[in-house]
Design goal:
The structure is a homodimer. By secondary structure, chain A is an alpha+beta fold. Chain A is built from 18 helices and 18 strands. A seven-stranded antiparallel sheet of chain A has the order 15-12-14-13-17-18-16. A five-stranded antiparallel sheet of chain A has the order 5-6-10-8-9. The longest helix of chain A is centred in the C-terminal third of the chain and has 20 residues. Chains A and B meet through strand 9, helix 9, helix 10, helix 12 and helix 17 of A and strand 9, helix 9, helix 10, helix 12 and helix 17 of B.
Chain lengths: ~475, ~475
Amino acid sequence: MNETTRSRLAPAARAQAIAELAATFGNRLVTSQPVRQQHGNTTTWIVSEPPDAVIYPQSSAEVQQIVQICARHFVPIIPFGAGTSFEGHVNAPFGGVSIDLKDMNQVLEVHAEDFDCVVQPGITRKRLNEHLRDQGLFFPVDPGADASLGGMASTRASGTTAVRYGTMKDNVLALVVVLASGEVMTTSRRARKSSAGYDLTRLIVGAEGTLGVITEMTLKLHAIPEAISAGVCAFPSVQAACGAAIAAIQVGIPVARVELLDEVQIRSFNAYSKLSMPETPMLFLEFHGSDASVAEQAECFGEVARDYDGSSFQWATSLEERTRLWQARHDVFWANSSFRLGARTVATDVCVPISRLAECVTETKRDIEASGLVAPIVGHAGDGNFHASVLVMMEDADEVARTQAFIERIAERALAMEGTCTGEHGIGQGKKHFLEAEHGSSAIEAMRAIKNALDPNGIMNPGKIV
Amino acid sequence: MNETTRSRLAPAARAQAIAELAATFGNRLVTSQPVRQQHGNTTTWIVSEPPDAVIYPQSSAEVQQIVQICARHFVPIIPFGAGTSFEGHVNAPFGGVSIDLKDMNQVLEVHAEDFDCVVQPGITRKRLNEHLRDQGLFFPVDPGADASLGGMASTRASGTTAVRYGTMKDNVLALVVVLASGEVMTTSRRARKSSAGYDLTRLIVGAEGTLGVITEMTLKLHAIPEAISAGVCAFPSVQAACGAAIAAIQVGIPVARVELLDEVQIRSFNAYSKLSMPETPMLFLEFHGSDASVAEQAECFGEVARDYDGSSFQWATSLEERTRLWQARHDVFWANSSFRLGARTVATDVCVPISRLAECVTETKRDIEASGLVAPIVGHAGDGNFHASVLVMMEDADEVARTQAFIERIAERALAMEGTCTGEHGIGQGKKHFLEAEHGSSAIEAMRAIKNALDPNGIMNPGKIV
């Protein structure tokens, strides 16, 4: 018998589990409609499926207690971070208990000499970086939103700096995880590398809470660079901008960020952030290093850009200018949300080998136009990863259908170019049907076998990934 | 019933499988004593357990055929690369068939713009880099030995350049794997990153052939740096040398290699490579970048070294000098083998947080002396990883016993310092008994559950890791 079906069929078991949780956790177990609603539907356009209850643990031991109670009654568990994911990760299609980790937000240890720290999963990346700043250290992964570190690990998040510093898979050293059995597992030690057994850390990173609940994380840190410089460069076409980005990497410029924005995105951007950028494809760049190295990188990029008919490079060397620039870049989601009044932003992402990026973006832009949609594009050009943010009037059924069809096509297009249906947002509910096309049936069978081995009753975030 | 036991108890099944393989593969199935012996015991001191037969496939389809025949008869499969591993990975404690992948050594595709290539697992890292050189690209992971890429992935190898370029887990993009079921699985696409489902790539990397046989690999490549410079610096103590290495990283010098050699290693090194280095702890460094950046890095390191009483930095800027230096570093295994005539080199490795490296190396040196052993030390100082190469007279039972006890203590010492019992050599047979102490019982149970899920009959390299 399928156990998630069993739990769906057993509301009595869910009520019993919730009663037991309430007895232990008192008012930290909440069943009110608004709170449940908040924990189902967040930044996704996928229909909301709220949990039966939301619970706020304060320690790994409490999470373990919650999991043990839920496991005994075959009740689903949905880990919840900051709610900034896009693919329905925090929905509760089979009911169950949302574990909101916001109160587990402490920095437990900072080992400055070892460039690592130990944190609880509910801390957000901005708060972590505020905490670290005085020690000259930072955590580089930056998905834009002020996501929780636990959520970032679970969706294998990356963002603007991945081209230089890698994604969450590269920046998590070890995890403490409460498994479906109620046991607590430590995935690795604090050494920077290890060849000791299966890589359980990387198995949990990107598992979207379907294999366990992360309750503690050891993260790699980096030294805040001596110098940071940033700038923008306009190009006559998406091809030219992508060409310059690839060439910059090819000649070995260690770019820290290289973001592509299409002319539609620049329009939205200008409107929201009160800027007056030329409405043409642009690259936003950031260089990290010593003063001399940053200057050299910028000069070298200037030469590359000229080969691709780029405008002269506009510098933002002061902290204020730089902050304004990247704040604007980070506000893309909000800029887009107000770019078409009354529209919902449906953010989708794909990633292709960088040699195919220009082609994939160009075809996608043609598709957007042919579909009669409004969808600015931003891309992490150094990774071949880009987002189309479709601005949809949700009450227009035809436009919703066209958006859905567009999202299908963009994923299929990426897959046809040896790419992935999601570079950094994850599978969740929204992209489950692409998984087999992407990986093939043997890989999906292997994923299912792993899921069944670690969560035989299917209580960990059921209905996501596999 | 334990299936590996079943296969041990069923020599008839093994004979039947071998007969079927011989019928299909003709003289590419070898059962001669010398060839079997070669495939059991290689560079390890662990007692040789040769396979029943060795087979040389030429394609993924042939590997699949071999696995299907073996699976039908519950006969163990041991993947074999270049035989340079240290922990008994290629031994056949339950008999079975060694799959020697040396004929699967082709570079199938190079995507220069995407900085990746597709290779067969039998290619060695030197041959791959020869192939890539003309295109200005290289594969950075360098464990010293001219290992096969498949073996390097399977042991999660790293080596001298990991401090800058990461380990095999960071440089494998995707794998094709023949599973125990005989099915062929592709773990990922060619995109540089993905959030689509469980990270099967990282699960196979480091699995030491216990979850399947790698038959194709997509690898990340890097641009050959415009400039490379290298040099050596002598220090009064291991503490000083480690301190300088940590400080160099702390101030943000992007060192490409930073190798620690103790005074015993320098003696061995001088004798073998006809050099005349001062017999005191040294750091060997390499810097990659533009001409200007390399010069800046070196200057910056010079300042750091002075703070730790380092000698003035001796440069090897010419290709010849550099090659000689790193050749000597890479010949450490051979240097040690001839440093004590008639001795066997028993290489063991551990890895600790870098803040504990000096302490761990110092205690280990004291232990070596107290144990009356000869054991030069080399370390990848930027990762906190080091090797003690015990030079043992195998016919001296007491010395063998002292070596075994020393190996136990070095692993326990690393574990006590939040480190790992192996940074890059792997678990194999030699370090199985440390796995639970390192990871705890829940993690080991999870590893076993994964192993059982993907290889229920235990035919994939049985007796290793779990």
